[in-house]
């Protein structure tokens, strides 16, 4: 039986894209590599595992969702639906008998039903799904790809921190207008609060 896993990186930041990845592969082979939730690994460890996953897996793919796309869906509170649509597209690129997905919905069974209906595939959505090796591998792929994209943004605009709302360096960069508008998620409450305080240089 072919098993695939799907996970994302960068759902929460106010700056930069979100990346959704899929990995289909042998459980034992992926476990042998030492895959686990990308948040539990250092960047060095993720970068080391990334090419090993690409070599070991039967199928790997990902999609990059830019801030303006996220804004369009988040503005109408449909970010989960966007994630489901993009996951369904990835599933069509990687054939498997079952797809394990890290659920963005606090009720995983609801996300399972939605994605199964959209894709016509067997889907098991779970909270903390990274315990499934294929999902853990997908989380690593998504995180590595996103980190590299954010590095490119930093090389163009200077160090703006992690891009997360909790990062004071990111907030300072938003206030100073250091970050290009197309790289910012304007629907995020962080930006709205800064504008309300008269502290944001972003138009």
From TrEMBL:
| Keywords on record | Cytoplasm, Endonuclease, Hydrolase, Manganese, Metal-binding, Nuclease
Where in or outside the cell? Cytoplasm
What domain of life is recorded for the organism? Archaea
Chain sites annotated for binding a divalent metal cation? 7-8, 102
Query: InterPro entries, per this entry?
Result: RNase_H2_suA, RNase_HII/HIII, RNase_HII/HIII_dom, RNase_HII_arc, RNase_HII_hlx-loop-hlx_cap_dom, RNaseH-like_sf, RNaseH_sf
Q: Name one GO biological process term.
A: mismatch repair
| GO MF term (any one) | RNA binding
RNase H type-2 domain: which residues?
Answer: 1-200
Per UniProt, the cofactor note for this protein states:
Manganese or magnesium. Binds 1 divalent metal ion per monomer in the absence of substrate. May bind a second metal ion after substrate binding.
The parts of the chain that form a coiled coil are none
- Enzyme Commission code: 3.1.26.4
What's the main place this protein lives? cytoplasm
What GO CC annotations are associated with the protein?
cytoplasm; ribonuclease H2 complex
Q: Which Gene3D superfamilies match?
A: Ribonuclease H-like superfamily/Ribonuclease H, Ribonuclease hii. Domain 2
Q: Which reaction does it catalyse?
A: Endonucleolytic cleavage to 5'-phosphomonoester
Enzymatic class = hydrolase
Under Pfam families, the record lists: RNase_HII (PF01351)
Q: Which cofactor does it need?
A: Mg(2+); Mn(2+)
Function comment: Endonuclease that specifically degrades the RNA of RNA-DNA hybrids.
HAMAP family attached to this UniProt entry: RNase_HII_A (MF_00052_A)
Q: Which family does it belong to?
A: Belongs to the RNase HII family.
- By what name is this protein known? Ribonuclease HII
Which species? Thermoproteus uzoniensis (strain 768-20)
Q: What is the lineage of its organism?
A: Archaea, Thermoproteota, Thermoprotei, Thermoproteales, Thermoproteaceae
């Amino acid at each position: 039986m072919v098993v695939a896993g799907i996970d994302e990186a960068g759902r929460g930041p106010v700056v930069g894209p979100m990346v959704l990845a899929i990995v289909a592969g042998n459980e034992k082979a992926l476990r042998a590599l030492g895959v686990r939730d990308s948040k539990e690994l250092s960047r060095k460890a993720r970068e080391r595992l990334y090419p090993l996953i690409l070599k070991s897996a039967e199928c790997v793919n990902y999609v990059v969702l830019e801030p303006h796309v996220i804004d369009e869906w988040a503005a109408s509170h449909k970010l989960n639906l966007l994630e489901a649509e993009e996951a369904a597209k990835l599933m069509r690129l990687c054939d498997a008998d079952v797809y394990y997905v890290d659920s963005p919905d606090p009720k995983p069974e609801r996300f399972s039903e939605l994605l199964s209906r959209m894709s016509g595939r067997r889907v098991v959505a779970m909270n903390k799904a990274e315990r499934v090796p294929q999902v853990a591998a997908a989380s690593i792929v998504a995180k590595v790809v996103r980190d590299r994209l954010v590095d490119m943004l930093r090389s163009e605009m200077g160090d703006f921190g992690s891009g997360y709302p909790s990062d004071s360096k990111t907030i300072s960069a938003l206030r100073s207008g250091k970050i290009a508008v197309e790289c910012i998620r304007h629907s995020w409450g962080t930006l709205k609060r800064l504008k309300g305080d008269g502290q944001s240089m972003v138009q």
